[in-house]
Amino acid sequence: MRWRNFFRKAAVTAAAASFLLFSAIALVGRQLPAEFQTVAGRAFSLSGPGLSASRLPGDEIPASSALEEGGYRAQVKLLGLIPVKTVAVREVAETEVIPCGTPFGIQMYTNGVMIVGISEIQSGGEIVNPAKEAGLQPGDIILQINGVKMEQNEQVAQTIEGSGGAPVQVTVRRGETLHETTLCPVLSDVDALWKGGLWVRDSTAGIGTVTFYQPEDGKFGGLGHGVCDVDTAGLMPLRNGKLVPVAINGIVKGERGRAGELRGYFSSDTPVGDLLANLETGVYGVLWSCPVQQEAVPVAMKQEVVSGPAQILATLDENGPQLYDIRIESVNYDETAKTKNLVLSVTDPVLLEKTGGIVQGMSGSPILQNGRLAGAVTHVFVNDPTHGYGIFAENMLAAAQSLSSATDQSPAA
């Protein structure tokens, strides 16, 4: 009987261990991207713990763009034995960029008008909510009213006020889809104006950090995350925007439970570049000149970024960008975490003394490791400002290279 119980427990333990192992393998496989890039002629390897990769013979991939030199497929294994996933490896030419770490100001105008809130209106002695009744929601982008393109807050207000109470047809973009609805304005008891109960926004401004500059075409990447609306947290749809110079004039030190910030001001209204894209991975465009005197460095492929010592290039005062020591604690290949590929910890005593760690305004600060641009700072851990997230530089470079070339890369006369 004792032996029977022993074997039964052993079988249960073995089954549980097998389940955990296969669950771990499945999780690693899901988190690995289907495709990697590597510099042509450089061996492909992975930095994840226990992961290795070997090229599959005779399984070559033809080039699909001018930037690529073809590629091959590789088998990723766990502990050198257990197959996890087959991935495509694209061979590309090495790209060098100039790491910046300089602050910049954004003046951004939206493509359409964003609904940031809906409100009730007192009309005829009753409380009504026309926007809600029309099915409109915060985060919707008003594109047209009665077939007329909307680009400014005043247009929306004037169109609704001028309706005389007649229903208006509103076209909005919600996520990736378009919706049409009928909004019935009501006469406000407060100011005798026709209103729809909408709070809207058509522009924003802020401060961030330039991550890199491409000397051959003037393209830049910055922030490492998109510019989102403060009320809805939705990505602001870009119509056009300018970059202006910024001077840093103070620091609010980060504390546990409260994010710090770099304080600055627009030092000039004269633009220094064009903003061309506001994406989840950052802001991109063209700078009319390089903002720093730095040597160009290669961009690291994501599999070349490893846990260990690194540095960030950040501007805290009038002395310009300086290098500060950090440590990359972990690397995450999961493509769903677009701006949280790296977990960082600040180890530099000077930076800790000045800022407490990572603060708002440092988003986009370049991360340098082993002579390459590894990524950019994106977020701070509010409960521990000595830690934060970073994005792979490879992801930002791909976004910058996808931009169509600006027709004029110099300021207007």
Structure commentary:
By secondary structure, this protein is mainly beta. The protein has 3 domains: 24-92, no CATH class; 96-107 and 203-401, Thrombin, subunit H; 120-196, PDZ domain (Pdz3 Domain, Roll). 14% of the residues lie in helices and 47% in strands. The chain has a 6-stranded antiparallel β-barrel with strand order 5-14-15-20-19-16. Strands 22-23-24-27-26-25 form a 6-stranded antiparallel β-barrel. The radius of gyration is 26 Å and the shape is globular. The model is unreliable at 405-413 (pLDDT under 50).
In short:
With about 425 residues, the protein is mainly beta. About 15% of the residues lie in helices and about 45% in strands.
Q: What portion of residues is helical? A: 10-25%
Regions with pLDDT < 50 over 5+ consecutive residues? Answer: 405-413
Structural class: mainly beta
- Based on Cα principal axes, name the global outline: globular
Classify the fold: give the CATH topology of the largest domain: Thrombin, subunit H
Question: What is the terminal-to-terminal distance?
Answer: 94 Å
Please identify the top-level CATH class of the largest domain.
Mainly Beta
The tally of strands reads: 27
| Main sheet specs | 6 strands, antiparallel, barrel
What is Rg? 26 Å
Number of domains: 3
